From TrEMBL:
Any Pfam family matching the protein: Beta-prop_KIB1-4
PANTHER family reported in the protein's UniProt record: DUF295 DOMAIN-CONTAINING PROTEIN, F-BOX DOMAIN CONTAINING PROTEIN-LIKE-RELATED
All residue ranges annotated as the KIB1-4 beta-propeller domain in the record: 101-363
Gene: LOC101782554
Source species, domain of life: Eukaryota
Source organism (scientific name): Setaria italica
Protein's recorded name: KIB1-4 beta-propeller domain-containing protein
Classification via InterPro entries: KIB1-4_b-propeller
């Protein structure tokens, strides 16, 4: 019997101090840049953390500050300003200059110091950028575009520069002009386009929906330019998507079909400067033309249109605008992990561990009216419901109290209160949580020249 083979001793591995010889800090600069762009495609704050790993990565990856507006890759698209409730509007003294933002994809929260809100109010938001109106003096109507995470600001002309372009307002007093301008801002849709990096130009297109007007301005301009073409009567608010504005209107002499319009950014004309082409129809969709119940909404990276199949408001339908060039729309019954929230400014959120109360493949809205309820004085009332796209069924949004929303919700608020309020801009930009029994005004800001600004 042969002797057993000797058992070799296990090689002892020397342990180097942590970080010594680690390859991360020695990655080639172009590789760090490539990885950084991949990280940025997910979320801006992930990119900020990526740059903070080490000094080499910070030097190699582009700094967001100074590029936040000019490079669309740095736009914080999935971040929405969080309505605090209790009338704590952005700039309220109790907030100390801080504003919170919610990531609608991950549920992450960020608290940012934005002292600009001391003398500015929000007109709207697009791609996570905030369109602000300055109100230092009664006649001050300067507009600024703010990147809330980098602090980058683009200066735009005062909105009052629109008034001289309208002959009917030529003989009005300054007070009357400002009152008229206030009416223009009862509904504003905005889209932002960025020119070549070398030019550093930022163009903003405004849809003044209540007056069926479109205006545009570029950084460096002295005034806003009013388009000669009027905006058609829209069924829902205009939506920004990839630098263009989109709107839905009734189809002529048809109640069960709607048109989808596209408003392109202005083109550079050698003779006349930047000119805005007339809005154009790109598609039609078989939905009931019900005012304020047909919406365009971005979901994921696609543009969708949502509405009812008929005037009875029984079932909601979702169509994907599959091809913006050919105008092809495709009905869908599954939007995956996403949930749509419909209001004056529709949005989508994603179900995940950060947003556990978001119901995937659903639509939250308040379009249907209940029958007379004896407990509520025999009056019909609107309820906030969730429509489940896959099954075609309706259910209350969370519970009875939140489904009615005709009374102030109890504090602390539920997540759905905050998200649904983000859809209602007349509440969202005033620090209020949406419910029916409230008078919308700016009594909390007595120095604001526009009463009841922006819905």
């Amino acid at each position: 019997m042969s002797p057993p083979l000797p058992c070799p001793k296990r090689a002892r591995v020397a342990t180097a101090p942590y970080g010594a010889g680690a390859p991360w800090a020695s990655l080639p600069e172009d590789l760090v840049q490539l990885i950084g762009w991949r990280v940025l495609s997910g979320d801006l704050l992930d990119y900020v953390r990526f740059r903070a790993v080490c000094a080499h990565w910070s030097r190699s990856a582009a700094r967001p500050g100074g590029r936040g507006l000019l490079d669309p890759r740095f736009h914080p698209r999935r971040w929405m300003m969080l309505p605090e409730g209790h009338g704590l509007y952005p700039g309220h003294p109790a907030l100390g200059g801080h504003v919170r933002f919610l990531n609608l994809s991950t549920g992450a929260l960020a608290r940012l110091h934005l002292p600009l809100f001391h003398d500015h109010v929000i007109l709207g938001c697009t791609d996570g950028l905030l369109l602000l109106l300055r109100h230092c003096d009664p006649g001050d109507t300067a507009v600024r575009l703010l990147h809330p995470f980098t602090g980058d600001v683009a200066e735009l002309p005062p909105l009052s520069s629109l008034l001289p372009q309208m002959e009917r307002y030529g003989d009005m007093t300054e007070y009357s002009k400002l009152s008229r301008l206030r009416g223009f801002l009862s509904g504003v849709g905005a889209a932002v386009t960025v020119g070549p990096a070398a030019a550093g130009a930022i163009t903003v297109v405004l849809a003044l929906e209540s007056k069926h007007l479109v205006a545009h301005a570029t950084t460096g301009d002295q005034r806003w330019t009013l388009s000669a073409s009027r905006l058609p009567r829209v069924l829902g608010r205009t939506v920004s998507f990839h630098g263009n504005l989109y709107a839905v209107t009734p189809k002529f002499r048809q109640t069960n079909s709607v048109h989808i319009w596209q408003i392109d950014p202005p083109e550079l004309d050698a003779a006349e400067g930047r000119t805005l082409l007339p809005p154009r129809i790109i598609a039609h969709c078989p939905l009931a033309a019900i005012p304020d119940a047909v919406h365009l909404v971005e979901c994921g990276s696609e543009l969708m249109v949502v509405g009812f199949n008929d005037s009875k408001r029984t079932d909601l339908a979702v169509y994907r605008v599959a091809d913006l060039i050919s105008g092809r729309v495709v009905p869908i019954t599954n939007i995956g992990e996403h949930a749509l929230f419909l209001g004056t400014r529709p949005l989508y959120a994603s179900q995940n561990k950060g947003l556990p109360s978001v119901v995937a493949n659903s639509i939250t809205c308040r379009y249907r009216v209940t029958k007379n309820d004896a407990l509520r004085g025999g009056r019909p009332f609107r309820i906030t419901e969730q429509y489940h796209i896959g099954t075609g069924t309706w259910s209350p949004a969370t519970d009875e109290g939140i489904s009615c929303w005709n009374e102030p919700p109890a504090s602390p608020y539920m997540l759905i209160h905050h998200i649904f309020t983000c859809c209602q801009h007349s509440y969202w930009n005033k620090g209020l949580i949406f419910h029916d029994k409230i008078k919308l005004d700016w009594s909390v800001k007595p120095n604001l020249w526009m009463y009841g600004l922006m819905d």
